[in-house]
Design a protein that fits this description.
With 238 residues, the chain is α/β, with parallel strands linked by helices. It has 8 helices and 11 strands.
Length: 238
């Protein structure tokens, strides 16, 4: 079984765009686990009115309280894992995946149990993500020439829940995302732990589009800045 673990919070219109792209894959997913992180924008009614909650592929749950991305992915991935999923495809509600994304990623399953596609913004600018996590300093080091000589992939030692495809055997070894992070670095640490058991790869081919503008990503809200700083200490403890 291939299952999607999709976490949403107050982005009902973007969520539907994500869902439509997931449901239009050349290689169909078996189940889509949606974790609504206690949204207050009418997400549940919005999905129900459009028939998504009656769709046989979709299993929906609304959290009692918002536990952030970390808590949301913990619960969504746990639901997919307990349902017997062999591969779990994680994603936020602000991305669109290309129709061939899943099929392309699975072409690399013999060499990695944790696979990521390249990403771009809607203006076409590619998101630089190749590099490595230095556990000694707790810093991420970006390497813009990671795809030197047009390599198909770059090795990394971290993860991103915007499109990560992970095998259940990795979860068996490292567990689910750490809820304590709330937001920021929960996926990075999940990947760092996974890197002890598999070669994590980042594909050169761009298969995901971020629907949140680049400027907004670069100017996070105050609460995000708080967790970025606070979670630096959690990273060091790991």
């Amino acid at each position: 079984m291939i299952a999607v673990a999709l976490v949403t919070f107050n982005r009902k219109e973007l969520l539907v765009r994500t869902l439509e792209s997931v449901m239009s894959q050349t290689l169909k997913v078996d189940k889509i686990f949606i974790l609504n992180n206690a949204s207050t924008d009418g997400t549940e009614d919005y999905l129900r009115e459009r028939g998504y909650l009656d769709h046989p592929q979709i299993l929906y749950k609304r959290a009692i309280e918002n536990e952030g991305g970390a808590g949301g992915f913990h619960e969504a991935m746990k639901a997919a894992y307990e349902a017997g999923a062999e591969w779990i495809w994680t994603m936020d509600d602000d991305i669109i995946v290309d129709p061939e994304a899943l099929e392309t990623m699975l072409c690399y399953k013999s060499m990695s149990l944790c696979i990521h596609p390249s990403k771009q913004f809607e203006n076409g600018k590619r998101f630089i993500w190749e590099g490595y996590f230095d556990s000694t300093s707790g810093r991420s080091i970006w390497v813009e020439d990671g795809f030197l000589k047009n390599k198909e992939y770059s090795f990394v030692n971290y993860a991103c829940f915007e499109g990560m495809l992970v095998h259940r055997s990795i979860i068996e070894k490292i567990g689910f995302p750490d809820k304590r992070f709330f937001i920021c670095y929960d996926d990075l640490i999940f990947g760092w732990l996974a890197s002890f058991y598999t070669n994590i790869i980042y594909l050169n081919k761009t298969l995901i589009t971020r629907t949140i503008p680049e400027a907004q990503k670069k100017n996070p809200k105050a609460i995000s800045n708080y967790y970025v700083i606070r979670n630096m200490f959690l990273k060091k403890k790991k």
